[in-house]
Design the sequence.
């Protein structure tokens, strides 16, 4: 049987045809960008159309959008559509055990905030934008079950027919997520390898519902963290007044998911470690066992392409753990940078793929490492007075040397013009400076500022900093 997916009428005017496998967060944004550049795009998505059904698929319900993602959305002309979905989070609200909560801002300049957004609504907005383009066709419930890179064919299965259709492609881009079906074939044909590094921690999502008349029961404009040394709970606000709460915890050991086997153990665990949050989650144990436990891991690929006709973007190329809130942001940045390279090479795919992957793979590896490192920061370090002193000094140094010293978190979250790998390298140098400055002190007043200046100027070159693009945007979204 012939699928309508195979019936693409060849356009004579465009730049060619691209099959995009995966209509999650990255696929539709890519489709919008590529169609605007003159390509005809077919998107194959295995799930039903999100705009007509409600499926969470066990994935996180909301996520943090930051400057890199916003910059990419703006470059696709989509930012005004996304703005109404966003709740600004200006900092972390820490919930230490048995003590008062404590707010620590993420940045110190206007607009240095991140935003909570609903994954499914964001996906719907992106799909709708792609759907509006006459150059884009969306095929839902079309699962790619294989790819023959040599003969340029996709094997597509439609649940309605259960048959597999062979669809020829001119070019293909895999955006089918961390468990990508097209990755192995593309990476093997490109002469590279990929690996999945599982994390020893899983996650579970829970809900703090809205209070009466839709109010948020905790501070709305913050990302809430309950750091517990070795594990943590976080919560992000939703527009309807609820919070999505996520527990990150070891798979095995004490405490661990393996120990949370019944309502008694779950209630006891929350009573012991998260008593304030427990009071806000009704039917805690029911929800705990109803919701799936998600696995986390890092996907690293040494090669994202096969020749000039097959490429991977987003989680398919670089799955990262969620602790820097950058997986989607990095995927959106992939799209923006890919379009920049396509333009600058005058759509010579051979050159574009080469330049893009040389530029981008090191960045993906850097954010993968940064995300793993930030887990330790979030669950362990944030309450440590030494860490807090270093943070304070970092902000002072940023005020004094704005084009040289920018705290690591700010480089990653608020500066798209600083590549991830540069941020990580400079972050390590900055950390050494801060360690040296705080070796024998525990108060800001005792910092040796002349030494600080000497260290900064000697070890950190000037950065070509763009003014933060979020300034006006954040102000108008708040
Ligand atoms: P996906 O969003 O996974 O989309 C892939 C799509 O491909 C899906 O629609 C899927 O159905 C489809 N598909 C899969 N296989 C096939 C196939 N064979 N054929 C056809 N279609 C297929 N990132 C952030 O930036 N900020 C955050 O705060 C954040 N929080 C997170 C919290 C958690 C708990 C997790 C797990 C992740 C988080 N992320 C966050 C990461 C973010 O979810 C991913 O980086 C992002 O979803 C990647 O987008 P993608 O389009 O590449 O992949």
Sequence:
């Amino acid at each position: 049987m012939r699928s309508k997916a195979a019936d693409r009428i060849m356009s004579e005017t465009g730049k060619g045809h691209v099959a995009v496998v995966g209509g999650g967060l990255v696929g539709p944004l890519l489709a919008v960008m590529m169609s605007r550049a003159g390509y005809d795009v077919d998107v194959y998505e295995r799930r039903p159309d999100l705009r007509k059904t409600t499926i969470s698929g066990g994935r996180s319900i909301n996520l943090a959008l930051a400057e890199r993602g916003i910059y990419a959305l703006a470059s696709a002309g989509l930012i005004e559509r996304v703005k109404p979905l966003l709740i600004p989070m200006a900092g972390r609200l820490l919930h230490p055990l048995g003590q008062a909560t404590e707010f620590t801002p993420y940045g110190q300049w206007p607009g240095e905030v991140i935003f909570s957004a609903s994954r499914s609504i964001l996906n719907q907005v992106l799909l709708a934008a792609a759907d509006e383009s006459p150059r884009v066709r969306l095929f839902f419930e079309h699962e790619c079950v294989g790819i023959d890179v040599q003969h340029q064919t996709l094997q597509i299965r439609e649940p309605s027919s259960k048959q597999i259709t062979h669809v020829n492609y001119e070019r293909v881009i895999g955006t089918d997520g961390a468990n990508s079906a097209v990755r192995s074939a593309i990476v093997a044909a490109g002469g590279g390898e990929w690996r999945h590094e599982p994390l020893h921690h899983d996650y579970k999502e829970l809900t703090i519902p809205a209070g009466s008349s839709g109010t948020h029961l905790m501070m709305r404009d913050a990302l809430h963290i309950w750091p517990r040394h070795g594990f943590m709970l976080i919560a992000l606000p939703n527009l309807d007044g609820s919070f999505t709460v996520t527990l990150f915890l070891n798979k095995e050991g004490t405490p661990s998911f393996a120990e949370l086997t019944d309502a008694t153990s779950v209630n006891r665990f929350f009573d012991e470690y998260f008593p304030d949050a427990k009071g806000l989650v009704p039917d805690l144990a029911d929800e705990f066992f109803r919701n799936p436990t998600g696995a986390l891991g890092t996907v690293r690929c040494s090669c994202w392409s096969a020749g000039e006709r097959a490429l991977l973007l987003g989680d398919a190329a670089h799955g990262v753990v969620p602790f820097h809130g950058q997986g989607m942001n990095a995927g959106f940045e992939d799209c923006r940078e890919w379009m920049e390279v396509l333009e600058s090479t005058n759509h010579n795919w051979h050159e574009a793929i080469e330049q893009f992957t040389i530029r981008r793979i090191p960045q993906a590896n850097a954010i993968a490492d940064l995300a793993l490192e930030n887990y330790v920061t979030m669950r362990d370090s944030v309450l440590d007075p030494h860490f807090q002193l270093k943070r304070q000094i970092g902000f002072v140094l940023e005020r004094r040397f704005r084009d040289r010293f920018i705290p690591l978190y700010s480089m990653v979250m608020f500066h798209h013009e600083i590549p991830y790998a540069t941020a990580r390298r400079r972050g390590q140098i900055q950390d050494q400076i801060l360690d040296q400055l705080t070796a024998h002190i525990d108060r800001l007043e005792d910092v040796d500022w002349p030494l600080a200046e000497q260290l900064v100027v000697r070890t950190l070159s000037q950065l070509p900093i763009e003014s933060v693009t979020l300034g006006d945007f954040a102000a108008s979204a708040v």
The longest strand covers residues 194-208. The radius of gyration is 23 Å.
